[in-house]
């Protein structure tokens, strides 16, 4: 099938990228009544702390890391969409300190709306991200769906001694963010046709950059916890880190890196609906300054697609962590705060 006039990919999705995640509070309500079998001792990480991937130990020195991620279009270019989605899925392997091994493709496409050529371009983009990660797409599953959906099941491996969960941060740890924020806002600007070519290029560069620093960071004993920032926004993933570690995260907002022009877009009201849903889900756990603006709040909760690694490490390891980020060309990595003993609220912004 080859249609001459196809709709914009983003016009077919009610929420693009990780912005279409179910809100944290809604997800919690859904899952609380779902029974689970007792976990075997070999399952080192499951669903308890909403970590990035499951980890199953197979012998003394090896554990399997398994994750999946998929979503609807965040951009209109089919190749870029596929590459972003695949990069995002593979990131969860890196966020556990693991090395990816192979992937399976998850594909749902409106075959009477999109041409075979367009769908093939989406898959090509995903395959390109996997080639960059050094892994094959070994299979997958396809369905005919109303909205375009693409993503991966990603499988990796890690030494059990080097697993970095999101629940092992310690009081006194320094928090370092590997990528700037603002992907959700740039995607909203794209939908409104106000994102220029430079902004689009920066968005694509950010979302297609593999978080390949993860395994090297995991080798550092001073790195205590690791996660990546995706659909629940910086605040949401900081809260998961703080809750799981029984700590409070303190963030210096002036040090949080932002993509170009996202502050102005947010000031102009160009934000995602997901940022508001995120705040409704967890805002009661966050302390913000009295002069914190709605635009800053939107950035704090902005859903990141293929966002950066968030590292919790000892103060003695900060230099090494930043050097590893630099070696992997994450030149925008920044120290953004620190962890303390648990206080009344789990996240404090200053």
Gross CATH architecture of the largest domain: Alpha-Beta Complex
CATH level-1 class of the largest domain: Alpha Beta
Query: What is the CA-CA span between the terminal residues?
Result: 55 Å
Rounded mean pLDDT score: 93
Textual characterization of the structure:
It is a single chain. It contains eleven helices and 13 strands. It has helices spanning 24-31, 78-95, 116-133, 183-191, 197-207, 214-218, 233-245, 262-267, 273-282, 294-301, 318-327; strands spanning 43-45, 54-59, 62-71, 99-109, 137-144, 149-158, 174-177, 223-228, 247-251, 286-287, 309-313, 334-341, 347-349. It has a seven-stranded mixed beta sheet, with helices on both faces. The protein has a six-stranded mixed beta sheet with strand order 1-2-3-6-4-5. A hairpin with an 8-residue loop joins strand 1 (43-45) and strand 2. Helix 2 runs parallel beside helix 3, helix 4 crosses helix 5 (197-207) and helix 9 (273-282) crosses helix 10 (294-301). The termini are far apart. The relative contact order is 0.18. The model has no long low-confidence stretch (mean pLDDT 93).
